[in-house]
Amino acid sequence: MTDVVIRALDASDADLFDTLPDPLGAREGHRLTRHRPDWKRVALRDGRVVARGAWWGGPDDTEPLNVNWFDVAEGEEEAGATLLRSVPWQVELELNLPPGWRDDPALRAAAETRFTAARKAGYDLLVERLLYRWTPDRGLPERPGRLTFRAEPDDAVFFDALRRIHSVTLDAHALKAIEQGGLDQAAQEELDFFHWCPSPREWWQVAYTPQGEPVGIHIPAHNPAGPCIGFIGVLPDQRGHGYAYDLLAECTHFLVEQGAEFVAAATDQGNFPMAANFAKAGYPVVKERLNFDPA
Q1: Residue 250 DSSP one-character state
Q2: What's the CA gap between 148 and 22, in Å, rounded?
Q3: Which Gene3D superfamilies does this chain map to (predicted)?
Q4: Which residues contact 142 (CB under 8 A, 6 or more apart)?
Q5: Dihedral sign, CA of 269, 243, 187, 29?
Q6: What tens digit of pLDDT does each residue of 22-58 get?
Q7: pLDDT tens digits for range 192-223
Q8: Distance separating alpha carbons of residues 257 and 241, to the nearest angstrom
Q9: What residues contact residue 87 under an 8 Å CB cut-off, 6+ apart?
Q10: Taking the model in full, what pTM does it have?
């Protein structure tokens, strides 16, 4: 077997990326994603593409934030690992899979090929997530009307709320940040993401009871692919009342009032309460995502 050749692409040969089969439907999933040609790589064996990766970041980012498209031909796990190891960017790997992929032998085999390549490259599984997409045909979730919502211009208010929310959390990324740098790091990473989103800062809202007690926060947002639920969080001392649904319903209504024709969202598979709220609000699961961390 001949050696693998790793090739960086540019605008002149970007079509090479499209020559590998797409059994997991990544192309349709990335219909709204803008990948830079120079952040794409392919692995060639005898001139044939046997693995490919597309690294992604926002339009103003100077380096990619993650690799969110990674495909490997059957039996070419080592080539996929070589591809991942060949780049200078040590960033998270996202693998998006069709719902119920474990129940389809062909889909499961294709997914396992990619998992094996990622592990050979030194990546470890961080979390499995559910991806949602609300559309108007699902109907707007009913607003319970129990809370009032107000914009808050002071980032310190959100920072404090995020520290409190993440002090008792099921979110794997927040738990990783806490392990690395404590609650301050977890809160700051969330704030940095909110500011990174191109949506207006004025959209961020705090929820209150009729008595004026803060309940939590919700962040209606746009990422580069479109409108999304940026964050839903209930303060620990306000949990047990189902307020996360109120926040999600309000966030959905807010985005639709701003012209959203769909709303994307995600939660960890282990976050059963939030998954139940998405189901109640009419958000169907459209993809499953596995996040891998580089060594």
Answers
A1: H
A2: 46
A3: 3.40.630.30
A4: 249
A5: positive
A6: 999 999 888 888 899 899 999 999 999 999 999 999 9
A7: 999 999 999 999 999 999 999 999 999 999 99
A8: 26
A9: 41, 53, 55
A10: 0.95
